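Hi everyone, sorry if this is the wrong subforum. Our group has a chain we'd like a structural model of before ordering constructs, and none of us has done structure prediction before. Sequence below.
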Amino acid sequence: MEQSGKDAVLSEAVAIAKLVVSGEVPPNDGCRKIAGIRGAIDIDELAELYHLAHLQDGSHDHLGFSKENCVNEIVEECNVLTKLGT
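Answer:
Right subforum, don't worry. Here is the predicted structure as tokens:
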């Protein structure tokens, strides 16, 4: 993908992250939205949120990962992501 496409995806992800940090969007929902727009695009800055979206899908509950216990990490990663947009 060309740079402008990656920039557009990052810009959208930063906007969603800001909504998560402000409390306007629940962390789990925001994480899934960011993972969805990332799709198959390999953008390093979104990798951790993509991973967290995967961990909260229920398939790793037996390993101690759930929607509920991913929230703090999601908010932390969204805070990091919002700094890219400033």
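For your construct planning: The mean pLDDT is 87. The radius of gyration is 12 Å.
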